[in-house]
Structure formats: structure tokens, C-alpha cells
Amino acid sequence: MVALLATWWTVSVFSPGGWLLLSRELAWRFTPRWAALVAASTVALALLCGHWASRLSRDTPEKPTADELAGLDKATRARRIREFRRSGLKGFVMGADGRASTSLAQVAIWSVALPFALVFLLLLVGRSPNCPARSCW
């Protein structure tokens, strides 16, 4: 039901002819700010889904408790902590030693910034042909 309502609203707002009950022109405009919000939401949703997928996978280690770590020798304790730190999305910025790596963090930031920019530009370019000169800005 929610998907049907979302589809109905999306087609009504973005299609030139609209659908039933929303076929006249609306006062709402798809501005660059809305494009940025939609692009950021899209990238955040993709990151969240990726994090959930990695955390729910079979081989993902659980966070070790203090009681579990207390009974282990130093090398095993360090290995368990390192394995947990390198699991999930945070593993993209963790180095081989289990500490945050600035070079890997930079790659991760660019990996998020480029899809955001591409989605943002696609949203702006996708709306500009139907927009009279400067009236939608």
C-alpha cells in the first residue's frame, strides 16, 4: 500500500500530465536544495543497506564483551578486537593493524562524495528540460 501511494505521488508530482487528483500544476518546485536532499538520502540509504548486509552476513564477528576478552591472552585479545573493527562498513577505513587509516578514510570519503554528486547532477539535469528559463530556481 505504501509503495502504491509513493508511486502515485511521484508520478503526480514529476510527470507533465500527472495522474488522477493531482493533474493540475502544483506549487511545489524541485529545486537544487530538494535535489541535494534526495541525493543525500539516496546515498545514506545505500550506505545503510550495505552496512546491514555486511552485519547480517554469516561470517561477521560479534563485538567481544569485556568478560570474554579478560580470559584471553594478549595476542588472541588483539586479534578478536581487530577482527571486529574490520567488520562492517567501518572496515573500509580500518588498516591492517585495526586502527583507522587516513588514506583509507580518504578513499571512503571520495567513494561517498562521487555517488552523491552523480545523483545530484542527474536530478538537476533530469528536471531542467521541463523548466522555463530560471523560473524553477
Description:
- It is a single chain.
- Helix 2 crosses helix 5.
- The longest helix is centred in the C-terminal third of the chain and has 26 residues.
- The chain has a domain of 94 residues.
- The chain has 137 residues and is mainly α.
- Helices cover 58% and strands 0% of the residues.
Distance between the termini: 34 Å
Helix content: 55-70%
* Overall form: elongated
- Low-pLDDT stretches are none
The number of helical segments is: 5
Please count the beta strands (DSSP E, at least 2 residues each).
0
Structural class: mainly alpha
Strand content: under 5%
The value of Rg in angstroms is: 23 Å
Indicate the mean pLDDT: 76
Largest sheet: none
Helices and strands, in order, run as HHHHH
Notable traits:
137 residues, mainly alpha, 58% helix
Summarize, please:
With 137 residues, this protein is mainly α.
Helix-strand layout with pairing:
Elements: H1 2-14, H2 32-55, H3 66-70, H4 74-85, H5 102-127
Helix pairs in contact: 2-5
